[in-house]
Amino acid sequence: MRIVIMGPPGAGKGTQARRLSAELKVPHIATGDMLREAVKEGTELGERVRWYMERGKLVPDEVMIAVVRERLSKPDCSMGFILDGFPRTIPQAEALNRILEEQGAKLDCVLEIDVPEDIIVERISLRRVCRRCESAYHLKYNPPKEEGRCDRCGGELYQREDDKEEVVRRRIKVYREETEPVLEYYRRRGLLRRVNGVGSIDEVFSRVLEAIRGGCIGGGDDRAPIRLDEEENRATPA
Ligand code: ADP
Ligand code: ADP
Ligand code: ZN
Prior knowledge:
disordered C terminus; Rossmann fold; binds zinc ion; 3-stranded antiparallel beta sheet; alpha/beta; binds adenosine-5'-diphosphate
């Protein structure tokens, strides 16, 4: 299964993608996590992207495309992947098509986690992230067992610099302007599956599984995309 997961900052992409990755046994590829890792390690890539990330701006397409191209060529991606945080622009979406074409592969579906703005702001403002493994917690909705510590690896939890209010506003604006057109791009290709992201993490996860079972499995071939319930899902054959 080759799945892209999209949605505004703080929608719950990472949370759902991690669970889905465990369920489907394909890697979770989160470009934000990869970049934060590079910044933390002080690599050349980290130095190049830090300025953009701190300001809530998009890292230039050519940098991101190179990062994703390299990652998708690793053997663990041969059976599929959950791509979280990429593509965020139309040129990135076109590049992803080319990369997959070169591999003789295709996307099975694109999930959009749909959450209204007031809820994403609440989710982001109380988000805490593990410094070591990037797992996300929420002080109210998904608190760690021990305060300030990651359940999974014991790492220290912190608030991302770019989760502070001013930068969040910029990131939401960038999403509306640069990333929403990508949803339309996939909708026209019959790949978009919209999932209501309001509700508990478990509730959203069951909707994600339902969307995948209903529309993605067996996809990626040449037949016409399945027409889903219009109310639930805006996807229609191109
Ligand atoms: P994204 O990857 O889209 O930026 P995250 O997965 O990091 O989003 O989730 C953002 C924040 O919201 C985190 O603090 C996470 O624990 C919390 N969260 C995720 N899903 C839900 C949900 N369904 N209900 C409440 N909080 C959630
Ligand atoms: P969120 O989970 O809140 O949506 P991410 O962790 O995915 O945010 O991304 C954090 C930052 O990393 C972005 O604000 C941007 O600066 C950079 N970034 C991640 N992925 C991309 C991408 N595909 N294109 C450009 N910038 C990216
Ligand atoms: Zn951790």
